[in-house]
Amino acid sequence: MTKKTIMLCCVAGMSTSLLVNKMKKAAESGNVDAEIFATSVSSFDEELNSHAVDCVLLGPQVSYMENDLKEKLSDKNIPLSVISMTDYGMMNGKKVLSDAMSLMN
Fold it and tell me: Can you state the angle between helices 93-103 and 17-29, rounded to 10 degrees?
């Protein structure tokens, strides 16, 4: 399997940092080759231009931006989904990673 790049977006890119760390640990223990990083929605375009992103996950607090961001990705064939509020609140890195991998299959 080739390395996958997963971008998480939230208001400032800070609240998802803990979730990113948990996802990285889950990736390591599951032998998943993935680059996972967090950013703010205001840096969305810049990050898309500087990374070969395979999947975008939105924090529940910015779910209202889902349609606008999906439109920006429509010609790039990059899937986007909102992280479930439960998984986000529980910081369930393993489940969020699994959801991301399913989006990319």
Answer: 80
